[in-house]
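Think of the structure tokens as a kind of shorthand, similar to the way a musician reads notation: each symbol stands for something richer, in this case the local conformation of the backbone. In the example below we present two proteins back to back. Begin with the first one, reading the sequence and then the tokens, and try to describe in your own words what changes along the chain.
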Amino acid sequence: MSPHTVTCTIKPGSRKGPVVEVGDDGTLTLFVREPATEGRANTAAVALLAAHLGLPKSRVRLIAGRTSRLKRFTVDD
């Protein structure tokens, strides 16, 4: 079980969400309904990414970008 790093762009407060879009180049954009206040969008992004990857939330951790729209996550397979 080796961890992987996944970089995503987050769109908080989106009416479109919750949804994950995969770009032509493989980049992930996470659309979450929660606003970017008090870490609510970050929590929703972890849950959405975990669901997209088919993993429990406990295997996905935010490691960089807490206050940025560009975030890095560690994913344990």
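Once you have a description of the first chain, move to the second and do the same.
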Amino acid sequence: MSTELEEFDDIKTVVTEAELPKGERILWQVRPDWWRLALGAFRLKLVGLYFMIFALWKIGVTHHETGSWAQGVGDAATLLPALGVGVAMIMLYAYITARATSFTLTSRRLVMRFGIALPAQLNIPLGEIDHAALKLHADGTGDLPLKVGKIGRPSYFQLWPYARPWRLGAAEPMLRAVPDAAEAARTIAKALVAHQGGTRSVVAGNAGQSAPKSATGFAGAHPAAV
């Protein structure tokens, strides 16, 4: 079974045991954290920074023209409604996106279901996961990019927002904004070792760093016990 992306109108958000073939069982299942999704995939901080820079520019221009800091601040305050609407829309979209997404690890594969208007399902057999990485955030959430074979690999834009950033030519699926990501990494690593075999140690690290290839688990530049 190769990695494949399917799109259907009737795909349920969450995988259930009843859908799985005989002998396959669910080991782990989670939805992404919507707030971390807003901060990461939808760049909420950058939106706030953009408005801040524009507000400072407006204050400076008004002061230059009128000599009044108070009037400059007053003019910049007119941007607040637009900022509020923009932030609210991003947060709402992140929440809906997270609710329409689930990551499911079974004894044979990793299933990603996502999509609002057109639900999609990506099946990644455990045997086709070459290696993975873990990037932890301060709040315990994390991102887990997966390196898979080229056959049947979806494009970057088909996977977004669950594609590793800037890997346009060789898209890598990424479990983004995973709650309790360290524990999720341990569970996925154990499943990879059990399915693929091998005795090498399994580690988790920073996804932004280069990492040695491992056929049996997670790789990273700053290992942590798994």
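Compare your description with these statements about the second chain. The CA atoms of residues 203 and 225 lie 6 Å apart.
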